[in-house]
Amino acid sequence: MSSVIKFGTDGWRGVIADTFTFENVRYAAQATAEYFKTVKGPEPAVFVGYDVRFQSKTFARIAAEVLAGNGLRVVMMDRPYTTPYVSFEVHRRKFAGGVVITASHNPPIFNGFKVKAHFGGSATPSITAQIESKLGMKPVLGEGKIETVAPENFYLDHLKSLVDFDRISKSKLKIVVDSMHGSGGFILEQLLQGTSCTVQTIRGNPDPLFGGINPEPMMPQLKPLGEAVRQTGSHVGLATDGDADRLGIVDETGEYVNTLQTLSLLLLHVYRNKGWRGAVARTVSQSLLVPRIASSFGLKQYEVPIGFKNIGELMLETEILIGGEESGGVGLSRHLPERDGIFINLLFLDLLAASGKTPTQLIREMWNEFGEFHFDRRDLHVPIEAGQAVVERWKADPPATFAGRRVQEIGSMDGSKVFLDKDSWILFRQSGTEPLLRVYCEAPTKAGVREIMNAGLKFVEQFTPAGVS
Predict the structure, then answer these.
(1) Domains, the chain, ranges and CATH?
(2) Which value, to the nearest 10 degrees, does the dihedral of the CA atoms of residues 57, 82, 191, 173 take?
(3) Angstrom distances, CA of residue 157 to CA of 60, 76, 82, 175, 402
(4) At residue 9, does pLDDT exceed 70?
(5) pLDDT averaged over every residue in the chain
(6) 33 phi, psi to nearest 5 deg
(7) Please, where are the H alpha helices in 255-406?
(8) Which has the closest alpha carbon to 230: 256, 210, 192, 204?
(9) Which of 290, 342, 391, 420 has an alpha carbon within 20 to 30 A of 64's alpha carbon?
């Protein structure tokens, strides 16, 4: 049992009815309860949430029963709702922690078990280690009481306080929201009711199959959002993933604004327009634009391995003005040590309302000031051993040139990041839990990105006789 429960970058995930079973959820809940019982200061209570996936509510109830059986007060949502809301409520209520049943942006066959700590963010590696050490303990099935609650307005009121909501309300922005059939539902549309904004939500109804896609807010999954923006003549498209802790943006032409551009634009917004201060954090797969902008403002910078929990942990130690990962997770210390798709989409509307400009105008102005950059990512389904061999080859025996560019340095913080001349890089990162090699690339031109990515794919093919897919 305990051998199949492994916590990754944000909790434990598994295929439903294979490793993600009622029994294993009980064991995960018991181990989590053992940790929560050691937390001193906050109330010995747990807030439980869940997403729209198959049997998520049942899995959440099973986890809640074990937590309550351990003498913890348990408060459980009465409907699918966002992961950041659970984090917010844990912090607001001063609870020992929270549990969310969700597999976030993963395919529909997966479900997951996320643990939220008392500070309102993902469990740190040290907390996760404590939980994993208790995975063999037999679940306690007692008769503890479970309180059921509906969403309250504290969270939305808090989000409004972080932006110039009056300016957004008067902006007359035309917006399409894409919840990708996940927990984001109609939250943004409801938040903007009664304002001058026109909001249409697509894929807002809950669907355990997410319409047959992975609910990850990037292309090609956001093609319906891009088309809706074009057809309606909207100013922007805003998307959230399966549990609404990540976001995706589509500009007024229906084109995807990648998350490297989004983080850079929001860094400029919170520093220049909002006047906020703090350090800047980014994962190793983020853009060269971010440190370039941060350096121009004299801001302290941190680079961390992939996984927003690494940024969240930094937020416990220092004020992070803004931090982000390539996969759509962005957060600010003044909100929570947590990524939040609803909040960051609202902050992007704050930027549009403050500037009076379109996303494409804002990107072009940013490029004119700090340099133009383009990005691509490929998820390659290759055996774990082959992916690991690719990563290790770069560390042990890198070529002098690659894709017609000089190899300057090999970073090994997380995978192998190959820094090339002409302001370019390519990163190879093998998943430790599934046969997936991710390849990330950034360069000043689209043609440069294509050249480097094609060279990267050919490099990987050396280690995969069956090819890559």
Answers:
(1) 2-152 (3.40.120.10), 153-368 (3.40.120.10), 374-461 (3.30.310.50)
(2) -130
(3) 27, 21, 16, 21, 51
(4) no
(5) 94
(6) -60, -40
(7) 259-268, 289-296, 308-315, 341-355, 359-370, 384-396
(8) 256
(9) 342
